[in-house]
Fold these 3 entries.
Entry 1:
Amino acid sequence: MTDVLIVGSGPTGLTLACWLALNGIEVRIVERRPGPHRESRGKTLDPGSLDVLEQLGVAARMTAVGNADLVFRKYFDGAHISDTPFTDALFIGQWQIEEVLRERLAELGVQVEHGTRITEVRQDPDAVTARPEVGPAIGSRYLAGCDGGRSTTRKLLGIPFVGSTEEEALMVLGDVSAPGLSRDHWHQWFTSDGGAMLLCPIPGTDSFQLQASRERDARGEPIPPSLESFQRLFDRHAGMPGIELADPTWMSAWTVNVRMADRLREGRAFLAGDAGHVHPIAGGRGMNTGIQDAAALGRALTSALRTPPGPAREEILDRYEAERLPAAAELLADTTERLERVLAAVREPGRGTEAGLR
Ligand SMILES: Cc1cc2nc3c(=O)[nH]c(=O)nc-3n(C[C@H](O)[C@H](O)[C@H](O)COP(=O)(O)OP(=O)(O)OC[C@H]3O[C@@H](n4cnc5c(N)ncnc54)[C@H](O)[C@@H]3O)c2cc1C
């Protein structure tokens, strides 16, 4: 039996695994994907996350990969209006963050167990048993559900996810190359008819993260993301002839979800990261909050496992929820407000996503 089983190897699960391994706690981390992904998704690390990553010994590796000096370039109806330098966060693709954390975890003697999807969780007073779709059951003293917004562990634990989900996706997302487009800027095109196309360079690659308003067909139905649709949106909103988008490595659609778990602890099992809260991406706080959750849970589990079973241990474990549940509530309210601010700001020529960052 291991001390802690972590379900999910996104930024939250990997941060927690490194934290526990560094503190001598026996840990296993399972991941349903067959191998690492290459999706840019969360692309900023804030100073609070860099502080946690410093404690794990990887902040310098992150800054070596990332870009701390990006200029937001704003266009309106095709005309370049303004540039805003932004140096308050490190821009870096989520897959790059996960790669550094996996490397650190391997140095600490732990490998992510890919291709292991947890489908059943049971607990008794002394242990938790998690069952993967394939392979033997895994016993642990504690379990951390770090398995994202659609968290299976949250559902298996019967923890309600309270809030709202919009019916239709707000935007399409992806990773593409755009040969000929400058890589020193986060290009943000907005149009007076409400259109948006954003291309943010992912450092050390040829790739840009694309975010755009949805394309609709003649009946007003949203068109699913594809390279052809991305190009039509780019031509319509950016109007830069000669730039051909290519090499799509990730394509998705993003829906506004504002939900949080009504508790983060169920006996010997805990939730952290998106498994406990989902919210608008304006302000780039999701992954950063997951990293803070992981540090708080890492501290609680390390301290609890060094304390004899009994009320003192339970109190240490309860402190995790007492600290992080109010943080989740604040996150939902704050990011909802940031999204409204961004959507209002971009109607004005020269303004962009910085409206949600400050
Ligand atoms: C376009 C975009 C931009 C964003 N920008 C930012 C930003 O700038 N800054 C920021 O902080 N955040 C940002 N976010 C949000 C960020 O991506 C998420 O908050 C972050 O991924 C949450 O990390 P996590 O580890 O909690 O969950 P995830 O990254 O979702 O990881 C969960 C993992 O669990 C695995 N898993 C799921 N179910 C199981 C199972 N049953 N068994 C085993 N494994 C399982 C999944 O495969 C996955 O690897 C952005 C998101 C998007 C889409």
Note: The helical segments are 11-22, 47-55, 59-65, 94-107, 152-157, 227-237, 286-305, 311-345.
Entry 2:
Amino acid sequence: MNTTASALHTDGMTVRHLDVDISQGFPIYWNNNDAYRSQLLNALSFMFPVGEQFFIDSVRHYAQDVAAQGDTQLAQDIKHFAGQEATHRHLHQQYNDFLVAKGYTPWVEEALKRVIRLTRFFSPLSKLAITVCYEHFTAILGDGLLRHPSWSEGMAPTMRTIWLWHAAEESEHKAVAFDTYRAMHGGYGRLRAFYLLISLEFLVYAFVQSTIMLLKDGQFFKRQTWGSALRFWLGREGILWHTAPHWLAFLKPGFHPWQHDNRALVARWRAEFANAYRPLTPQTTRSPA
Ligand SMILES: [Fe+2]
Ligand SMILES: [Fe+2]
């Protein structure tokens, strides 16, 4: 795999305690008061706790090997990666518990658990490759949330804080699984094969889970719902226009997540939300290589 991208990296990360309280719940249509936009992101939330535990396990599996190679920076990044994903899991579990209490079925959670059970037959490197793919999706979505004000400006304030925090941290740690995969000499062939498969799986899962929720609400067959979906995907700043080039970039030879340098977006988030979180670990920094 191409190593010239090793000069590209995050400008540091920390694990944060986010100062929000959703123990009393939140309005279901918290995103722009819009059924489609809210339930699509609620569907993603149902995927996070199970998926993120898998990511933590698959990257941590190599923590000792990375340290043994003498890459103390990556070993440190793995610790922060695991810490960030653990806090995401914790908050999204609270989030999801509220949705379940409101009567929504977390179909996708069970579907993911079944797939993860199947991966016990996979090698640790294949599990890491799967994580690299998912981390690219979360990085793409995170970048979109940080970049396009229209994606988040209609959110209820607490939910906006949660989603932008998650978006910023997914950007901060977007290369950790990738760099670990590369350090373990993982090849691009395996990565690309999983990428195509998982892209399809991710789309299907998000569609089915959001459909289940919209059907429960009696919103699925409403023209308003699909008008919103069209605008969200194909409108100005539509998610499709944002996602397509980043999705394709992964397939280019020599790809590295930091070839798309969005550190300025993360820095803007840190400045805007400095009072919304408490760092739990010292902020790591990296000087340009
Ligand atoms: Fe996460
Ligand atoms: Fe992540």
Note: The first strand starts at residue 16 and ends at 18.
Entry 3:
Amino acid sequence: MQLIATCLFGLEAVVSRELKMLGYDDQQVVDGRVVFSSSLSAVCESNIWLRSAERILLKVGDFSAVTFDELFIGTESLPWQEYIPSDGEFPVEVSSINSRLASVPDCQSIIKKAVVEKLKKKYKTDWFEESGSKYKIVAMLLKDKVTLAFDTSGTGLHKRGYRDLMGAAPLKETLAAAMIMISRWKWDRMLIDPMCGSGTIPIEAAMIGLNIAPGLNRRFAAEEWHFIPKEMWIMSREKALSLGQKDRELRIQASDIDEDSVRLTRYHAQRAGLENEIHIQKLPVSEISSRYKYGFIITNPPYGERVGDPRELSALYKEMGRVFSGFDTWSYYILNSNMEFEKFFGRRADKKRKLYNGGLLCNYYQYFGPVPPRDVTENF
Ligand SMILES: C[S@@+](CC[C@H](N)C(=O)[O-])C[C@H]1O[C@@H](n2cnc3c(N)ncnc32)[C@H](O)[C@@H]1O
């Protein structure tokens, strides 16, 4: 069986690393996706555990198609009847990139017709009520190659369940988690997000720190599917629960200049059951401090596109540069779409990585601090 973990462009290597940590070594990385081989239980495990992936798809098959006939024949040849029961609902979602079959509505109706034809043969009926569980078919056309799959996740994996109110420009939970994993922050190190907004970065960090599976408290589309035993989900959840490290003492600070943001962060942390893991306060970035010699600042300041007056932003970035330079033994990681950020910040990043935030091209500016000496156990 092949599964596909879809992700934001730029995060493929992060998803791949997460999958390797779960033991899925047989992988193929392509733009925006990691295809991996697995058994059925991986549907449960990957949905429950992956922090940086958007969805988990169950691949049904792939083929090349440049005409609608080829699309119909290729689709009809796949074993849909093995997955979709007679009352199953099977909407079709299509994306087409650099392919001759570019009309999404046409592809959608052809794929639907082909699946119906296949099911008619098995169920000996002309009419499907589609009143049962949902088996959403995802069709991805890329350079004339068609990949057909089922969406096992349902709601996107960024929806962990704790964030139900919107801040001014919240990060997707998947992106925030990826930013933390890219930084290689570990639970016993200090972490500050001095512009926390709705709290996504500190909350994702606390979940990583305590090894809490991000999908533990939500449902997935494939939980309703007849060919995945309910016990498989129960066992995967029980195992995930048992791997949590609730006793760890984390050192995570979240602050923001805005009172509403501070309240929102506190509310979301409570909903995630993590209010005791994060120290939250109202504070301008200019006043952050720490008694620890080593640590991480991971943050997502305003960009101007969505939050903040562009004229004030250069002053804010300068201020960040001044304040962070006082944390000269720390590492900092800053996501920003302003291509002149480094100029205002006053220091070139050691490494940059292109990431997309809500479709907006950003740089993830990475500034590496020194590695703490091995014998430092108290002060980092
Ligand atoms: C892009 S938002 C952060 C969004 C956040 N990562 C989330 O997921 O919700 C930027 C935040 O920076 C805060 N901010 C702006 N200027 C600040 C300053 N001088 N000091 C501290 N926070 C500031 C804003 O109040 C806003 O909440």
Note: The radius of gyration is 23 Å.
